[in-house]
Amino acid sequence: MCKSVYMDVKRCMKSPSNLVKTKACLAALRIIKQMPEAIDDFLDTLDTLIYEKSNPVQMATVTFMIEICRYDKKYVPNFKKYVSILVRILKNLHMGNSAPDCEVGGVKDPFLQVKILELFGYIGHNNEESTDEMSDILAHIATNTDTTKNPGNSVHAELARTIMRIEASSSLRVMGINILGKFLVNRENNVRYVALN
Fold it and tell me: What's this model's pTM, rounded to 2 decimal places?
């Protein structure tokens, strides 16, 4: 069935409708799990999807990229060219004037932030050039995310994980360790569990 529909799904990924693009991305994600040989056919569609302004499309696109990286690390170099746009998306979430609809507990779109940080973990692994490009925004997130509620804690947990995976500077690593230190002294057992893990 995947072989029969995947070209139609690819065409839907270029639809003018954001809803169709989002659904097509999620369908493509399921297709590559069943039919990994289709990954190469989908890569060129990411060049346009990553520049979409719609949060759901961005979320679906980044999730799709992560799934490709999980399947085979050989695809990670294809995504290095997207670091600057991903950094810009994070900057818009943190420093942009307009509050998106997806704000949760005072944190702008924590789900998208966590996914981008996870993707950074793959891209920045053994890659100093990409790590340098993302370091400033990682430091900004570490110091400017409200961690009084769980959405902020989830962003910080993924941030610490990302910092430990990439070729981070010593000052950035200290920030990551400090995040884990704050988690360990938190009164909530779930937060402490995440830090220990």
Answer: 0.90
